[in-house]
Amino acid sequence: MCVTLGKKLGFVLVGIEGKDFVDKNRKLILALVWQACKYHLLHILKTIGNTNYVDETTIKNWANQMVGTNNQTLFDFFFIINFICTDPSGQQEVQRDG
Fold this sequence. Notes:
By secondary structure, this protein is mainly alpha-helical. The chain folds into two domains: 47 residues; 44 residues, no CATH class. Helix content is 57%, strand content 0%. It contains five helices and no strands.
């Protein structure tokens, strides 16, 4: 049932079957749960933003705008810290030493 619903929602479920849930395959269950969380988050952002389209690029661009950088990966530790420490007006950010 979970796999069928996931496929209807457009999740990538290569190699995942209902048997994996019965066998408690944590890695494959987590793959489905992660995609469900991502789907839910994108749905919330579409609703809040009154738009029909939100994707990872839209989120990345918004986050870069908030921090005032053009970081392409969003995996940089300093980017994350700056994002957390930046107030909505974009006035405060952590300074990188060195």
